[in-house]
Amino acid sequence: MPPEGLRFDPELIRALRFYGIISLDLVTGPLLGLAFGRHLNQSFGLSPLWTVFGFLAGASLSFFGFYRLTTTEIYRDWRKNREKKGK
């Protein structure tokens, strides 16, 4: 049983989820792209080309996911504040 005064804060959980998704997305995208590029290099023998392409593709997809998540959260907060002011 939680002590008195200690409550579940959904905003804290939402913030931790937001930052966790961002950090995981920004790390795993380039690493998976790098691994896939290295695999293609070993398959086709074009040494640095596919590794660089895979890393850049993973990084750009990762930043696109970051952009999309951030704009969604900004819009959600804007809509929430707008509804509060309307009441």
Automatic annotation (TrEMBL):
InterPro entries: ATPase_put. Keywords: Membrane, Transmembrane, Transmembrane helix. The keyword Membrane applies. The chain crosses the membrane at residues 16-37, 49-70. This is AtpZ/AtpI family protein. It comes from Capillibacterium thermochitinicola. The lineage of its organism: Bacteria, Bacillati, Bacillota, Capillibacterium.
